[in-house]
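Exercise 7.
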Amino acid sequence: MCAVAAEQDAVAVTGASADLVIGGVGPAAAAAAASRALGAKRYDLVVCAGIGGGFAPLRLGELAVAAAIVFADLGAETPDGFTPVSELGFGEERYPVAPKLAVELADRTGGHLGSILTVATVTGTAARATDLARRFPDAVAEGMEGAGVAAAATAHGVPYAELRAISNPVGPRDRDAWQVPLALECLGRAVAAVSE
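Solution. The predicted structure, written as tokens, is:
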């Protein structure tokens, strides 16, 4: 599952032996597309693969591998700060990746293992980046689709994973400093290593 054509194209050139689906941007579009694909055919694994923002110490062009996929802004703002949906008693925001699978993917790709955060609004300020890093000290990357894909995979009983190649740091948006081609190249190499 990729969000946009550029990600799918980066993965396709590797000759990966997998069905490639463009799911759209954001958790809702990703969940709908993943569920449609998983309902039409039986799969052994679904991987959300894309580019995204990285948390220190990851650098541009490096790879994040999810040990857990966390819908970081699913919950409520309160006078005491953010409360996740699980603490409100309305469901789950955390989707753990099977530990053996997560470690194998990190080993195959040379990626950094940790939580990949799913957000509905991309982080654009230092204050928000600091808050996310405080709430999720093991966070390695931020994307917009992983939790949607994981929710669909869970509903269909299929294992899931997420890979994010880092195109920019999480924080203030400086588009001139982004390294999208480098991240797409990294993403292609990672998916090729996974599909071998």
